[in-house]
């Protein structure tokens, strides 16, 4: 998280300037205090009042505004733990590399006492221009950190290297730069997605889990400084930055991977199949009227971990996906499995959605949460895990 951090967001005049508002919102959601400084051309793409409304502080657009007390660029540069320029244009990069400080943003960067981070965005021809690359190299030698750009669709309709990183990825990168890791030094194992149990080479038993919640937990834990291993069932999701990923298919494969590893925290977010076919056919099963399928139980991984652990480690977190009596069933699961925390949610609120509604169930209390994005919920879960690691009431 960025709780307590002071961030100046510098906005340049590029088509991606509107995404700076998303960056500001995400920074504030993660606890940062934000002020904004803009180039005059940035105001042609997004109005300063937008940032004033978001932050509660007037956006700085002019060094010569007599209403500012003292030297505003010196004040901002000294105030900030980091100056994040998003989007950083070719023009601004060239000026910064040359020591030009003829607007409020450039002068603020020149006075920065903390980290300077640039998130470039421009046409791929501009990014690949020799002068831009020389400016990037010079700024990097001066200690500036770059987040992006990335390869992808551009405003011109073309595609290439020059697209702005997504706002959440930019904020994740800034967290890593600042080293604001309340989970630094902790190892966290996260399971995610479904397991599938093969009937034959073609068919399987599975469930509707997309893996989004587990992947969000892995991504946010890594951003908060943890060493994260993600064991993922079959899902179509990219590996989060800084996360070591292991792909599995069945519950027994997941069982073997989890039992073969140690961690400070184990988060069982995967939707693990309770049963598997007793036998797996070597060839495709042909239609032949009514067929009976015999199932056998899969290992109960969370219960095994709870029974085998020594003392209070690892911290064990499970999920209870229910269709009725959600919190009641979650509390029973907490006791039976020997877990420290159960994240209880209803199937209708979770499967296939970008948001979730959950209740955090521990031995001491139940904490119902409002509907929120899965990354936001991941942070709330990790906040509780951090408290458990710190020895707060379990």
Structural commentary:
This protein is an alpha/beta fold and 394 residues long. The chain has two domains: 6-178, Flavin prenyltransferase-like (Rossmann fold), CATH 3.40.50; 187-389, Rossmann fold. The chain has 14 helices and 21 strands. The chain has helices spanning 19-29, 48-55, 72-79, 90-98, 104-110, 124-127, 130-141, 167-178, 212-223, 251-259, 301-308, 326-337, 347-350, 374-389; strands at 6-11, 33-38, 82-88, 115-120, 145-146, 150-153, 159-163, 187-192, 197-198, 204-205, 227-232, 243-247, 265-268, 275-277, 295-297, 315-322, 341-346, 355-356, 359-361, 366-368, 372-373. The strands form six sheets. It has an eight-stranded mixed β-sheet, sandwiched between helices. Strand 1 (6-11), helix 1 (19-29) and strand 2 form a beta-alpha-beta unit. The longest helix has 16 residues, at 374-389.
Number of helices: 14
CATH topology of the largest domain: Rossmann fold
The CATH first-level class of the largest domain comes to Alpha Beta
**Termini, distance in Å?**
22 Å
The CATH architecture of the largest domain would be: 3-Layer(aba) Sandwich
CATH superfamily descriptor of the largest domain: CoaB-like
Beta strand %:
15-25%
Shape: elongated
Q: How would you write the strand order of the largest sheet? A: 12-11-8-13-16-17-19-20
- The stretches of 5 or more residues where confidence is low (pLDDT under 50) are none
Structurally, how many domains make up the residues? Answer: 2
């Amino acid at each position: 998280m960025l709780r307590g951090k002071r961030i100046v967001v510098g906005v340049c005049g590029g088509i991606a300037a509107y995404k700076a508002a998303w960056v500001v919102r995400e920074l504030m959601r993660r606890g940062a205090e934000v002020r904004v400084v803009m180039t005059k051309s940035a105001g042609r793409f997004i109005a300063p009042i937008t940032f004033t409304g978001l932050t509660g502080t007037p956006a700085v657009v002019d060094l010569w505004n007599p209403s500012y007390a003292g030297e505003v660029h010196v004040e901002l540069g000294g105030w900030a733990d980091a100056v994040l320029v998003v989007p950083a244009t070719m023009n601004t990069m060239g000026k910064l590399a040359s020591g030009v400080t003829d607007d409020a943003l450039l002068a603020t960067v020149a006075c920065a006492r903390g980290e300077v981070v640039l998130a470039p965005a421009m046409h791929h021809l501009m990014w690949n221009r020799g002068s831009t690359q020389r400016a990037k190299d010079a700024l990097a030698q001066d200690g500036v950190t770059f987040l992006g750009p990335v390869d992808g669709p551009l405003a011109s309709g073309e595609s290439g290297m020059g697209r702005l990183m997504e706002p959440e990825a930019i904020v994740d990168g800034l967290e890593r730069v600042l080293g604001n890791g309340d989970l630094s030094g902790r190892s966290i194992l996260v399971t995610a997605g479904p397991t599938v149990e093969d009937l034959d080479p073609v068919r399987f038993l599975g469930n509707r889990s997309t893996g989004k919640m587990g992947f969000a937990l892995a991504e946010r834990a890594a951003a908060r400084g943890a060493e994260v291993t993600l064991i993922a069932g079959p899902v179509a999701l990219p590996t989060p930055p800084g996360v070591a990923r292991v792909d599995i298919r069945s519950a027994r494969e997941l069982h073997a991977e989890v039992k073969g590893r140690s961690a400070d925290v184990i988060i069982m977010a995967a939707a693990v199949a309770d049963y598997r076919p007793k036998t797996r056919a070597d060839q495709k099963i042909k239609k032949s009227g009514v067929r009976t399928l015999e199932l056998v139980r899969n290992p109960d991984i969370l219960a095994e971990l709870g029974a085998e652990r020594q003392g209070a480690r690892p911290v064990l977190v499970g999920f209870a996906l229910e269709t009725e009596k959600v919190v009641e069933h979650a509390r029973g699961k907490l006791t039976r499995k020997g877990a420290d925390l159960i994240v209880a949610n209803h199937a209708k609120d979770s499967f296939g959605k970008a948001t979730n509604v959950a209740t955090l169930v521990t031995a001491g209390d139940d904490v119902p949460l409002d509907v929120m994005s899965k990354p936001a919920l991941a942070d709330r879960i990790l906040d509780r895990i951090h408290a458990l690691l710190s020895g707060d009431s379990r």
